[in-house]
Amino acid sequence: MERGKTIQIYLPDGNPRSIKIAEISTSITKAIFIPRSKINEVSNRPELQGVGIYFLFGEENELDQPKVYVGEAETLITRIKQHNASKDFWNVAVVFISEKNNLNKAHVKFLENFCCNKAKEINRCELENSVNPTKSSITESDEDFVLSFYDDLKVLLTTLGFPIFEELKRHKKDKTYFCKGKGAIAEGEYTEEGLVVFKGSKANLVETSSAGQWVNSMRTKLKEKGILVQKDNLLEFTDDYVFNSPSAAAAVILARRANGWTEWKNKESKTLDEVERKENV
After folding, report:
1. Residue 4: C-alpha distances to residues 97, 120, 254 (Å)
2. In contact, 31 and 157? CB cutoff 8 Å
3. DSSP of 96-125, one letter per residue?
4. 89-106 burial by CB neighbour count: b if 16+ within 10 A, else e?
5. pLDDT of 97 above 60
6. What number is the average pLDDT over the span 200-215?
7. What is the C-alpha to C-alpha distance for residues 213 and 218, in angstroms, rounded to an integer?
8. Of the candidates 245, 224, 246, 243, which has an alpha carbon nearest to the alpha carbon of residue 235?
9. Are 261 and 273 in contact (CB under 8 A)?
10. Could you give the dihedral angle defined by the CA atoms of residues 205, 209, 214 and 216, in that order, rounded to the nearest 10 degrees?
11. How far apart are CA 268 and CA 180, in angstroms?
12. Is 137 exposed, middle or buried (CB count within 10 Å of its CB: 0-12, 13-18, 19+)?
């Protein structure tokens, strides 16, 4: 069981939709959330004059995944301003620095490479980096320091609304739900993020004529990303995948419009609606 954490979020201008400074009480890792429209307002902040790693976040794609660029800089504000002039896709920057100012160029180069590889592995965002950053060579003790920094970075990034490094974990078997129809048979779990469809689940191959553009587009994107691949006369999930709603998951699996609250059922044949909504009233 993981221990609880205390996270402090400071709003410099009192606006919860504006600049945020977040930190874990027991950590040296500090995050600064910067809306693109507020770049000039943070230009003189001392935290942004030094070394760090940053993430640029853009609008979500058809798979509800944010577009993300990962970078590092010796002078953070200078690099962010350069991206403001040259990159169009993003609307929020999240910058990470050390409270003790003990990050160096080699540390952040290693971290940049590590974060890009992790983002590809976990596959919960659309990475905008055109090339994979070079991995710097650091000592074993420095690597432990950097990976500890990453662990806290991941928590803060998720707290600020970007769970791109959160791996999908399966829980107890009694929390498993099933979605079936024609040849399709899928297993999944209802979580705080949505409906997670498990690797190996099967979806129908061909959409119904009334499936609608959204269902067709979503399934096409999942096939393009290699998350759905054809096996015999069905499509198979090659990895666990989280949908933002039970209905979106059911529609992709059944290849038609669907009400996920009634299509997903547990082993006792109770619907997701009966278990997760009506029993909790």
Report:
1. 22, 28, 39
2. yes
3. EEETT----HHHHHHHHHHHHHHHHHHT-S
4. ebebbbbbbbeeeebeee
5. yes
6. 94
7. 8
8. 224
9. yes
10. 30
11. 14
12. exposed
Task: Give the Cα separation of 94 and 91 in Å (integer).
Answer: 10
Higher pLDDT, 31 or 3: 31
Q: The tokens of 131 are what?
A: 């090339």
Please list the residues that pair with 37 across neighbouring strands: none
Amino acid at 75: T
For residues 273 and 49, give the distance between their C-alpha atoms in angstroms, rounded to a whole number: 51
Phi and psi at residue 150, to the nearest 5°: -60, -40
Which residues, other chains included, contact 142 with Cβ-Cβ below 8 Å and sequence gap of 6+?
106, 107, 110
Q: What angle do CA 248, 250, 255 make, to 5 degrees?
A: 95
Q: Which residues pair with 94 in a beta bridge?
A: 33, 55
Asked whether the beta carbons of 250 and 244 are under 8 A apart, the reply is no
The two tokens of residue 234 are 């069905």
Is the pLDDT at 39 greater than 60? The verdict is yes
Residue type at 50 in one-letter notation = G
Name the burial class of residue 157, with classes exposed (0-12), middle (13-18) and buried (19+) by CB atoms within 10 angstroms of its CB.
Answer: buried
**Residues 168/196, Cβ–Cβ less than 8 Å:** yes
Cα(110)–Cα(241) distance, integer angstroms: 28
160-205 pLDDT tens trace: 999 999 987 766 666 899 999 999 999 999 988 889 999 999 999 9
Only one residue has tokens 């660029």, namely 69
Output the 3-class SS for 71-84: EEECCHHHHHHHHH
